[in-house]
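Forwarding these from the shared drive since the link keeps breaking.
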Amino acid sequence: MLKEMKEQIIEAFERAKESGEVTAAQVRDIVQNAVSDTAGKVKEGGITLREIAREASTTATDGLKKKGIATRERITAAVEGAINGIKSTEQRAMDRTRQEIQQLKTRLSGEEQKLSEDVREALEGTRQSSEAFTGEMKEHIETAVTDTKLKYAELLGLTGGTVKQAVKQVIDSGKDVEETVAKITRDATEKALAEAHFSADRVRKVSHTVISAAVETAEEAGTNISEVARGAVQGTREGITSAVESTKETLSTASEKTKSFVTEDLARTKEDLEAVGDLFVEIIRGVASRSGEVAGKVLTEIADQARKTPSTLKERAAEAAETVSNRLKELGKDTFGKAAHLTEETVHTAAEEARQLSKRALDIARGAVSGMIRGAKDVLKKDKEKK
């Protein structure tokens, strides 16, 4: 395979030479095409990408040298061509993956919609069953259906509407507004987050929906805005904290044989848990920026205070993140250890590469400055000669 690649480069050089001068752009394209063709055929355990890039660069440079045209510009083009060839191969693979992911997202969205419709239909069926009874039995069934629907409000797309209606009733009653709103928003957040694995994206979506719905209701009513804003933030924070603790409990008690989370999910969950405290502050600020003057001021003050002082949410999230770390080690000590070793090696390599690049960047910068100074001197010299 490498032999074929080298022959492809040499033959392309010959054709380019016959047509006239071999430009740096031609060198880059020739090497890139040859490397891309070869890298695309590499199989698991076969020739490495390092070997392909090395042989392509060596062949191109040697070919340029033999023809007496091995300038810095052309050699640079050969190196860039080798890298671009590898990059283009991986880029095509990434593009295919992105397309597959998009197709899966579309499919998942459709399945989520179907699930929502199925649950709604099932709920209606259970509600209809109450018609066969009277009195207390009928009431029990209808209450159970309502409670179940409330539990799956997020799935049914009813979270925001449910919070708004509940908060409106609290405002209308005028009694224990802040405390009651906190309880409503806590329950709504907790139930919504319980419908799926814990994730930062879900926390962002649910929190924004719940706090916004509560604040918008108070602003529409024109009263109790501060109380509702404070209660909504408190309740949502408590709901997230409860979800964090549930996640920790799930991971602590799950047996090794019953892996409810794959390793990749665990790693992502750990990152999300570590970020959730700061994320919640960002969400509060986001709602504040879209709210009226009163709510905006209250929410901004809450966000500022949350940024300055430790919170129960952050503490619980840190504990849960530590549990995830331990779980990762239990599920794959060898893999985890190897990953840690590779990370250290990568950091060391990156540091060395950064040092080399910084030296070259400095040389280039100095060369540019030196060139500007020489250019300025030449201009001054010419001006003096004219005078």
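-- next protein --
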Amino acid sequence: MKLSLRPIVRLLAVAASATLAVGTTVLEAQAATFSEKELDQSKFVLVAAPIGSGNIHQLLILEQISSEKQCWSESGSNPVIVDPLLLNFDFTGLCGRSVDQNGYSIRVDGEDLGGRYLVQIRKTDTDMVLMGIPDSKAGGDQEIELGRTNGKTTGFAKISLDPDWRLTKRSFKKKTLGHVYLSKGISAVPFPDVENDIYLKDISQAVALKFIAGFEDNTFRPLESLTREQLVSMILESLKNIPGVNFTVPSQTSGNPYPDVAASRWSAAKIAFAQQNDIVKGYPDGTFQPTRKVTRAEMMAVLKKAAIYAKSLGGLDTQLAAKQPPTNFTDTSGHWAAPVITEMSSYCGVASPLNEKGFAFTPNQSAQRNYAAAATLRTLNCVKADASAAPTAAPTTPTNTAPTVPTPSAPAPDVSKPSVPAPAVPTPDTTVPTP
């Protein structure tokens, strides 16, 4: 098949005008994080498109928007030859096309790598390989293989993406844009109400690891306060993700762990387990107050104990060695949890400023679900890093007997102050309870 440069030039010209058409939207979004929308993969084809005599190819992505006219046809194998039929008719509103870096980029685990990678087609003796090539200024980045044509041609060839790669589209403020992502990893926006949340990436990973979930109405409610029983559930569920540790979260308990926690309560078994293993404790009056909002300071104390317990399961040194300089918070001096907060700030940044801005920790403020997910994820990742750096040790199976671990010296929170009424706790999922 003899092909000329003219069709590609025409596509590039149209793409330039389309880019100008969305320029206002892009400028408006420059300071924000783009999200992505999942797509029907059958509506797209990736093509190695020839330039000139066919010695050079570039990526062309075609989309079948309407079924009124077919946008391309395929024939043969190794490689599959693509005929871009949209060159033969007015494809406005019927077919979409992305022909350069303005129209597509690489996205991994919710992070847009368009500023760090160029998408190119590299030829071998027998194949044409779609590659992500690091920008010369992006030191340390490695080349990424995205797909192959499984054969060579001087014409248009179909590119098959490598396993785990898929196409998504860029979105901003719930509006789907034309930009296409070659995407890999977790979906960046697991729930519509976290699209512009500062902890979006952490929430996505936490949801993927199944230690926190959304609600039945497909919301995450990132700014909703976390209760004490939800915190316990979330932390114990996170421990299932520690490699090499046989950890089972209990589903029932024989008795009431606290006077205000009946054995029949959805969280009772977990609360009992956390109590017996020194991960959490009740108040001086003997109650646990499961629906009470947990403060950011309390959450740090519980996360510290959870990290110590998790490390003991793997036979590791239970000291939480500093991974980074501690943060000098401006509002924790004299607070009962000040030592714990400082320690957890140096342990992979588990304790961080409110909304990741300034130097105030606001220890007495209720812990919100978005930060709770992020802080628990950081704790989990830090424990994993400790485990991977330590010599191989025989894993242990947790029991209901508490390991000998240091207990934070911080006194229990004063319960003489009136408690803030807690919101109703939604019925948890029976497999992964909603923290």
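The longest helix spans residues 369-389. The first strand starts at residue 35 and ends at 38.

- D.
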